[in-house]
Amino acid sequence: MADRLTQLQDAADQLAQQFVASLYYVHKHHDYALLSPTDRLVTKNGGNTAQADDDIDPKPADVFKAGQRELAQDLILKEQEIEYLISQLPGLENSEKDQEQLIKQLEEELKAAEVERKEAVKEKEAVLAKLESVIRSVKRP
Amino acid sequence: MEQPQDAPALATAFPAPPPFWQSFTKENLERLKELRAVQTPPSKDYDAAKELPLRILDLPPELRLLQPPDQPADGKYRLYGDIYDLKTPLGSLQEQNVEQLYTPPGSPSGGSKAENFDRAFILKKLAKSLLLNFLELVGIMAVNPGQDPNAPPPPDGQERHLHAYEEKIGDLQTIFLNFHHLLNEYRPHQARESLILMMQDQLEKSKAETQGIREMKEKVEGILEGLSQAKLAEAVEMNGKGDQDDLDGQDVWAELEKEFD
C-alpha cells in the first residue's frame, strides 16, 4: 500500500479523470432537444456532417439520468475519500521541531534498550552455562 | 527465464522494470546473506547507518545484481531518460508560473503546530473548490461554452479574450497543481513521521525481546532452584528409602495373606 500522500495524490488524479469522464459521458450520450415546434431531428445519415463527426450516441432518458446520477455519486465519493485522507495525514499534530526532538529521544531510548538487551543476553548465557553444568553433574555419577 | 521483449511494452505509460527484479527471490537473498556473513569480519560491528553492506566482488552472476550500486558520486541520477539532481529542491509554484491559491505557509512542514493544521484545512478547501469549479464548468458547458455572460469586458482589449470554458479549465488546473504542490511540500514531513514510527516499532521489538530473554532466564533459574531442592529432598529420602521399601513390601504381603486366609 502506498503511503498516504501518494494515495492522496492518486485520488486527486482520479478525481480529475472522473471530471473528464463525466463530461465525456454527458457529451456523448445526451439526447437531442427540440428547441421549437418546427425542429426535427437530423440523423447522421441525413447529411449533417458536423454531427456525424461528433458520433453522438443518445441514450434513453432514464438510462442517461441514471448514468449522470452514478457519475455524480462517484464524484462525491471521491471527494469524501480525499477529505478523509487529508484528515488522516500522518503527524499533522507534530511540527518539525517536535519531530526532531522525538527522533532524538527515540534514538536514545533505542540505545538504552539495546544495552539492556545485551545485558539480558549475557545474563541468559550465564544462566544457561549454570544449567548445563548442573545437567552434566547429574549425568556423571 | 527471460521474458521476451514484446512490442506492446513500447505503448505502456511506464517502461517495464529492468529484468533483474526476477533475481530477487527468497533463496537468492538468503544466499547473499550467508555469503555476506562469511565475508564480514565477525569482530567488527556492522553499522548500517554508516556504511553500505560489504560489497562482495566474486559473486555468482545471478546474485551480482542484488547488491545495491554505489550512490551517484556527482549527485545526479537518471530516471526515465532524464537526468535529475539529488539535491534539486522542490520549486515553488511561482517559479513554475502557477498562481498560488493559498497563503504561503512558510517553510514546508516547519514552524508551529497550527501551520500543519492549516495545511490540512487548505487541502480540504482546495478539494471542495475542485468540485465547485467542476460544477461551474459543467454549467458553462451546458449553457454557453463560448462566453461568460458575467465576465467583465477585457480591459482595453489588451488580452485575447478567453472562452469561458477555457478559463474554468485553467482554474481547475491551477487548483490541481496547488493541491499536488502542497502535498509534495508535505513529503519531508511524512518521511520524518515514518522514521518516528519505525523507530517506535524497533524500540518496542527490542524491549519485547529483552523481556522475553528475562522471562526465559527466570524460568531457567526457577528450574535450577527446583532441581537443587529436589536433589536435596532426594538425598534425604535416599537415606530412609531402604526401610520404607521394606515396610511397603511387608504391608503388601500382609494384605495378601489376609485376602487368602
From TrEMBL, chain A:
One GO MF term attached to the UniProt entry: transcription coregulator activity
Coiled coil segments of this chain: 89-130
Biological process per Gene Ontology, one example term: regulation of transcription by RNA polymerase II
Record keywords: Activator, Coiled coil, Nucleus, Transcription, Transcription regulation
Signal sequence, renumbered to the chain: none
Subcellular localization(s) per the UniProt record: Nucleus
GO CC annotation: mediator complex
Pfam (any one): Med21
Source species, domain of life: Eukaryota
Family annotation (InterPro entries): Med7/Med21-like, Mediator_Med21
Quaternary context: Component of the Mediator complex.
Function: Component of the Mediator complex, a coactivator involved in the regulated transcription of nearly all RNA polymerase II-dependent genes. Mediator functions as a bridge to convey information from gene-specific regulatory proteins to the basal RNA polymerase II transcription machinery. Mediator is recruited to promoters by direct interactions with regulatory proteins and serves as a scaffold for the assembly of a functional preinitiation complex with RNA polymerase II and the general transcription factors.
Similarity annotation: Belongs to the Mediator complex subunit 21 family.
Protein name: Mediator of RNA polymerase II transcription subunit 21
Organism of this sequence: Phialocephala subalpina
From TrEMBL, chain B:
Predominant cellular place of this UniProt entry's protein: nucleus
Transmembrane intervals: none
Cellular component GO terms held in the UniProt record: core mediator complex; mediator complex
Gene Ontology molecular functions: transcription coregulator activity
KW Nucleotide-binding (keyword) present: no
One BP term from GO: regulation of transcription by RNA polymerase II
Record's subcellular location: Nucleus
InterPro entries: Med7/Med21-like, Mediatior_Med7, Mediatior_Med7_sf
Classification via Pfam families: Med7 (PF05983)
Keywords: Activator, Nucleus, Transcription, Transcription regulation
Subunit text: Component of the Mediator complex.
Assigned protein family: Belongs to the Mediator complex subunit 7 family.
Function of the molecule: Component of the Mediator complex, a coactivator involved in the regulated transcription of nearly all RNA polymerase II-dependent genes. Mediator functions as a bridge to convey information from gene-specific regulatory proteins to the basal RNA polymerase II transcription machinery. Mediator is recruited to promoters by direct interactions with regulatory proteins and serves as a scaffold for the assembly of a functional preinitiation complex with RNA polymerase II and the general transcription factors.
Name under which the protein is recorded: Mediator of RNA polymerase II transcription subunit 7
